[in-house]
Write a structure and sequence with these properties.
Helix content is 42%, strand content 13%. By secondary structure, it is an alpha/beta fold.
Amino acid sequence: MNEMQFEILNMDAVTLAAEIAARRISSLDAVNTYIMHINNFNPAINALVENRFSAARREAQEIDARLARGEGGGRLMGVPITIKEAFDIAGMKTTGGLIWRKDMVMETDSEVVTRLKNEGAVFLGKTNTPILCFYQETDNKLYGRSNNPWDINKTTGGSSGGEGAQIAAGGAAVGIGSDIGGSIRFPSHFNGVVGFKSGNNQVPHTGSYPPFTVSLQEKMLGIGAMAKSVRDARLINDILAFTPPAPRNLEKFSITLPMDNLFYPVDNDTLRSLTEARKFLSLQMEVVDAPPPYYTDAALLWQQIMSIEIDAVAAAGFGKKPVRLWREYLREVLFKSSQLHRFFTWVMIGAKMFAPNPAKIAQIEQTIATGEQTVNNYLDNRLLVLPVFHTAAKPHGEVIRDIFSVRRTYLRYMPFIAYANTWGLPSLIVPVAEDQEGMPIGLQIISRVGNEDAIFQLGEIMEKHFRGYRRAPVK
């Protein structure tokens, strides 16, 4: 790898876009550099599951020709990016990690892809997810398991786990994920990348799979960047959001950072990260140690909401076959002979246990309506800083056991993540530290919809002072 290629891999999207626009770097050189790099690291981590390298090279050549003629371009003109497999790209597959969908080629782009293409982005390919994006370990029977580039024996998280690993390894200038239960934030934390989950109905999700049609679930869904810098996350949100966030004066904000009021367990490395963050932030602005409203309700509400119409999710997994969850789970555990990963059938079995009846759904809707107003008022001029998980990345399979145990351990290990989903809040992950094994640790910055600018401002301050993004040497 020559010096220019090394620099390209370490550039964030904002920097690379400026270099391409100034014609100091060609789009084709950038695309070829990333393709070369992906071919080197992807066999070890299995992040990219479908590529469009030939099309990307053609598009890059066309962009370089346009720039040579003096024609202008968008904010991502000629910049190579990747995206979670869940988003439709015309001419590419959207499988949901399901063998029965392995030949389903899409005819149109998702709205997110359209907006990025309109800004000149060059798509290199699509990255791995769990089945139907429904659990927090990126593994399925169609494409296999994705591995953390910091330690291939550890999880990437999910459901945007392939994208988290891809960006951590330096496989694109920026990536795109989606998040209804930590699906951007778990992989960002575990892989050491910046991640942003947009708030309630701030970014279109037309053309993503599976579609979410339950209004309570739609409110929890957010789409955003998995990136090398906070400014890239801001740029992507400006491109994707229906309305770009208005400026906010950070001096008028305070911070809630629970320590004595954290209520849920974290390991010593995570606790140290919180302590250092509190010490630093206390020098910048007022920091309060208190639980936010409805804090202890979030995990249970999240699980109940995700269990609404769970039979339809299970049916989508089985396709035209009858839904026999226990049979498929045991077939896979005992004989490795199912087309469905055991994580999927296990999660479906557990979710059915929490599926609310119509009366309970009505009660949840009332709680959410009341809670949203209270939470939004609380966060009007306030930023909430929370951990993501109780540890850094764990060995493959352990996160699933933490979250989907029959002992309902999600009530201990999902509250930090569930808070932003349950209340439809934007949340930014900033890598701040590493544990004793060198695995990244991220913290969340959360606030209400409309305060995204303040979130990004604080994120930029924290990434400068703490670890920030570092490209992983694939091991």
